[in-house]
């Protein structure tokens, strides 16, 4: 019984200390050769849902089309009705289009980086090395951190790795299973201070 009590308390503490991002859902109507609204200003972690109610359309926000997009998103061309949702975990400026009607149907999304106030952790002191890395990655942490959460995302925005480190100054991460390529990392500290960047695996 006592063990169950401690497990319960540990779970509650984990929930309280786990950083939470915005989780609002925004709806874009696809019809009449337009995205409505065609411009959105959202927060990191928000979800955008496109709803096609008329015609044959798609959402193309791929990096191959818009090279400055932080990550790719989009779906295939299909006739109505359909819905497509994407969670914007990576901040930045995004552009997208409907491929069959690219001269008429274009949109932009500004994703604001989640920030925090009253954080006493300087995330510039957190080091990820080596870069590029091969099978393992080292995480060097400041002395005064309570916890640091590391998340890795593919360039399509898919979360491929997450770990939370408490009361340690250095961590060795085994990432041999990850495919070669460029990954986006997101470091979150106490009070949800955030640092983001890119790292490459050879």
From TrEMBL:
This is T9SS type A sorting domain-containing protein. The lineage of its organism: Bacteria, Pseudomonadati, Bacteroidota, Bacteroidia, Marinilabiliales. SUPFAM superfamilies: Cupredoxins. Residues 1-22 form the signal peptide. The keyword Metal-binding applies. InterPro entries: BlueCu_1, Cupredoxin, ET_Amicyanin, Secre_tail. Residues 128-194 form the Secretion system C-terminal sorting domain. Residues 30-112 form the Blue (type 1) copper domain.
């Amino acid at each position: 019984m006592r063990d169950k009590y401690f497990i319960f308390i540990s779970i509650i503490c984990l929930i309280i200390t786990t950083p939470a991002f915005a989780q609002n859902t925004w709806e874009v109507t696809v019809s009449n050769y337009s995205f409505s609204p065609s411009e959105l200003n959202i927060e990191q972690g928000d979800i955008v849902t496109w709803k096609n109610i008329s015609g044959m359309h798609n959402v193309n926000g791929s990096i191959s089309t818009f090279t400055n997009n932080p990550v790719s998103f989009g779906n295939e061309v299909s006739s109505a009705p359909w819905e497509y949702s994407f969670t914007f975990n990576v901040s930045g400026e995004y552009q997208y289009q409907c491929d069959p009607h690219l001269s008429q149907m274009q949109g932009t999304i500004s994703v604001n980086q989640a920030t925090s106030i009253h954080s006493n952790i300087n995330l510039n002191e957190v080091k990820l090395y080596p870069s590029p890395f091969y099978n393992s990655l080292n995480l060097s942490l400041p002395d005064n951190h309570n916890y640091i959460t590391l998340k890795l995302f593919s360039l399509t925005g898919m979360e491929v790795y997450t770990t939370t480190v408490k009361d340690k100054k250095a961590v060795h991460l085994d990432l041999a299973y990850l495919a070669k390529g460029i990954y986006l990392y997101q470091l979150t500290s106490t009070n949800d201070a955030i640092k983001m960047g890119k790292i490459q695996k050879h």
